[in-house]
Amino acid sequence: MLAMAQAIDTMRSMNAVPSQPCAPPFTDAGRHALSPGLAHDDVARFNFLANFNKYMSGTVVGGNAVAYGTRAAAAWERQHGAKPRDRLEIRAAMSTDPYYRMWSSLRRCGMEMRQQAGRSLVLRQAETLRDRTRALNAGASTLQLDPAVSVPRYQSAIDNHCMPGSYFAEVFPEDVSAAANYDVGMFATTTGLFGRFLDGAGGGTAAWLRRRRPGWQPARILDLGCGLGHNAVPIARAFARSEVVAIDLAAPMLRYGHARARGMGITNLTFRQASAEAVPYPDASFDFIYTTMFLHETSYSALRNILREVDRLLAPGGLHVHLEQPPYRGMTEFEKFLRDWDCYYNNEPFWTTLHDTHLPTLIRQVGFANDTIFEAEIHAVVEDEMPKVAVEVEDYGRGGKWYAVGSERPPAAGGAGQA
Ligand SMILES: C[S@@+](CC[C@H](N)C(=O)[O-])C[C@H]1O[C@@H](n2cnc3c(N)ncnc32)[C@H](O)[C@@H]1O
Predict the structure, then answer these.
(1) pLDDT for the residue numbered 417
(2) pLDDT digits over 362-390, tens only?
(3) Is the pTM of this model over 0.90?
(4) What would the pLDDT profile of 162-197 be if each residue is shown by its tens digit?
(5) What pLDDT band is residue 12 in, cutting at 50, 70 and 90?
(6) Coil, helix or strand for 406?
(7) Which atom of ligand 1 is nearest to 226's Cα?
(8) What range defines the domain where residue 252 resides?
(9) How far away, in angstroms, is 248 Cα from ligand 1 center?
(10) Is residue 137 part of a domain?
(11) CA-CA distance, 265 to 29, in Å (whole number)?
(12) Per the structure, how many domains does the chain have?
């Protein structure tokens, strides 16, 4: 009872609760050849989840700072003789606070509910989805699966962001339900900010690249850790004369992604099963290499290997860029503590390490010259009717804006390269 009273007390003392527009209805999510049929209750569940997520990230999250400032920091100080010094001590101080516990468990429940809503929807249509995928993929040389590719432990040991079986689960041969679940639930989590087809990061990257290199037409493009190609499709569209290769470890994601892209009329995009740590292409094969929301799901040693591969594969005159949540450097310890939530409670074990890593230094260490390395911010490009980047609300990965880091390789002597 005391804990509940304290949590309610915190809510009351929060400053004016900002009013927020509703999330776009789930029926506005983009439909494509593999979209599962939706029953009334499926739509109702996702509409609830989208608005629940919005309320959590726009309003409820704010109570954590109030709880810390009015209760948890002082309680820690009484016990230890000093205020919490860093994010680990803040976490220890907050882990017994009723408000933080309430917010944390609601956030975790929201993710588990998304997975349950998605799985229950796609599993009952799994055979239909398999058949549609099979038909769309039939005879295509642009889907290249390799059963010899092994899944490293940093992927096989984790149900990434609470997805049962993660990206790899196959209930029966050629099953694509893992990918379909990832696809169908993400609109509710991102509340429209990634666009109707969840392709805002790819669209944003294409727009950014056009500003940085007006008129540039990279001949060959590589997307590492492409998932089901949410952000490979807009790149393939934006650079329709380029040959785009999208690499991933997970066969269900690639099968589904290839069929989805084909259903959208995309023909310059190859989906290939391979590890980004050992990409099966010769040196200097690609002019533009990018990753979107991928590096934080790899171990630290894999991260180094992947960047070494980028160095090997990038052609003279080429450019590579990686979109992630912003690094922790320069943030308050309290903000770092809040952002660490995903690492502890959302099955994102490499989240903290990635955001503590100085990526420009790592990029320099794998071989890129210091003066070619850049950092930038890239915003999602979405349809007019979808909500735009939430500048005032940062939902730690779902807000539609990203930190971008990368570098450029000088053209070869004699001017080849940047065409
Ligand atoms: C967050 S998801 C997809 C992100 C995708 N780039 C997007 O924007 O939608 C991360 C993906 O990385 C893949 N992955 C993880 N480790 C990998 C590796 N070593 N090589 C290739 N893909 C990997 C997973 O299978 C998963 O599909």
Answers:
(1) 46
(2) 999 999 999 999 999 999 989 888 887 75
(3) yes
(4) 888 899 999 999 999 999 999 999 998 898 899 999
(5) low
(6) strand
(7) 6
(8) 182-408
(9) 6
(10) no
(11) 19
(12) 2
Specify the ligand 1 atom closest to the Cα of 306. 19
Pocket of ligand 1 (CB under 6 A): 155, 167, 201, 225-227, 230-231, 247-250, 253, 275-277, 292-294, 297-298, 302
**Residue type at position 367:** G
Answer yes or no: is 143 within a domain.
no
Place of tokens 């995928």: 133
Angle ∠(416,418,419) on CA atoms, nearest 5: 85
- Which segments within 286-379 are labelled E, that is strand? 286-292, 314-324, 373-379
Q: At 265, which amino acid appears?
A: G
Of 89, 123, 157, the residue at which a domain comes to its end is 123
Q: What's the CA-to-centroid distance between 226 and ligand 1, angstroms?
A: 5
Which CATH number is 324's domain given?
3.40.50.150
Q: Could you identify the atom of ligand 1 that is nearest to the CA of residue 229?
A: 9
For residues 96 and 108, give the distance between their C-alpha atoms in angstroms, rounded to a whole number. 17
Best CA proximity match to 105, nearest among 344, 416, 409: 344
Nearest CA to ligand 1 atom 15: 225
Do residues 348 and 257 share a domain? yes
Distances, alpha carbon 392 to alpha carbons 138, 192, 389, 401, in Å: 46, 16, 9, 12
Quote the pLDDT of residue 21: 81
How do 286-292 and 243-248 pair as beta strands? Answer: unpaired
Q: Is residue 208 part of a domain?
A: yes
Domain-located, residue 417: no
Q: What is the pLDDT of residues 321-363, one digit of tens each?
A: 999 999 999 999 999 999 999 999 999 999 999 999 999 999 9
Last residue of a domain, one of 79, 97, 123: 123
Same structural domain, 188 and 106: no
